[in-house]
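Can anyone check this?
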Amino acid sequence: MTMSRLPVAVAALTLVLASCGSPGAETLDLSGAPNASRSSSGEMAGDSAAMIAPANVEYTATDGLLADPGIDTSGEFRAWRFGAPGDAEAATRKVAAALGMRGKVTKDANGSYVLTVGDAALSSYGDENARWWNFHVASGGTRDVSTSPCEPADLGSSKDSAPGGPGCVPSPVTVPPAKNLPTAAGARARVEAIMAKLGHDSDGTLKYLVSSDEYSVSVSAEWMLDGEATGVSWYFGFGEDGVMTFAGGQVFEASEADAYRVITIEQAVERLNSGMYAAMPYGWSSTAAARDLASPGTGGGSPGTVTKVMLEKVRTSLMPYWTASGRQMLLPAYTFTGTAGESVQVLAVRDEYVSPPVPSTDDMAVVPGSPGSGSSGSGSGSTGAQEPAVVVRTEEAQQLVGLDEDEAAKVAAGNGWTMRVVERDGESLMVTTDWVDNRVNVAVDSGKVSAVSSIG
């Protein structure tokens, strides 16, 4: 496994280590949420019915799994931490060079590093904990659209109303398919070339996912650590004539953190059933999905019905996590597989390393998969065990509309919110289907927030 110059060099991952005594390991402030739900292959969970998980689940481990899980739960498991590069300007210049942009990178009034070349703009923003970059082309994907004269609101009238005028009923807008889109293979090859310039090799360190429709081709790349998903991703979009219309990702440095003692398999199952530090179930098989979709509590009957899942396999894994103090980490976890192919992940670090201590389930009701049980890589939320500090109101979020994207992100952060772009220049972006109470999902057009899509 190789690393770029943006991340520092790291040794090959070994999940179980005894070289660092965990009694002195760092205490973790885990009011943040696991980063994202993924399929069993590590890809981002889709929105198909086969990926829908029930709200109320009861997990039970098979006798064989409890008797011999194949894991030394008395051992110590290595954690990893991510940080931003020390020289943010140099990191931004490297991204600009990889994208083929020439010019002087400058620092704006908001502390972001920016470069504009024609109608293409690059910005890099963040702090000492994390830094992201965003690229967009203002005219990218622009195509002639077919419109018809505005129909009068009064169909008995012989006069057409002026567009935008009183009584004007907007006519449907027809957007033709894009011409000369790159092939999936061609788009991926271009992204691989960019990632190589950023210092990343395609030797298994990156996991690619390509999707396309008649309007665009999208490519995502996720940085993997010895086969484990990290939550660090990059996204690229290509439009008509192969123009790269948007791109974005994280600039990071990864290093080994402390090693932690872990809970037993029985305790892990207890955490799953309490919803404590567990990611949303993912990788649901078609059989499991059909069963769950037919179960009450998942939209098909009276609420409150519990779906029972029998766990038969477990492996050690790493869970992407944002801490309450804004640090990004990979923490020791267990990934369980059910008899019907279901998969679910739960934090394996012992309670004594978590601050504040895990609340008793007698003190509060926690529903697995409740708000905060997952997050995209750009924000943090609640685990479901604690209420988030801020809950966003839709009317308050409207203050972001009209602001430049970077400025909107700053305003959101100042209000205690996280902002996620779910649509850019008319193109829907691939995002997780989790819920975070203090997250504002926005649409961005030509570098400005054009609408608040939703909260959560």
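Reply from J.R.: I decoded it. The first helix runs from residue 63 to 67.
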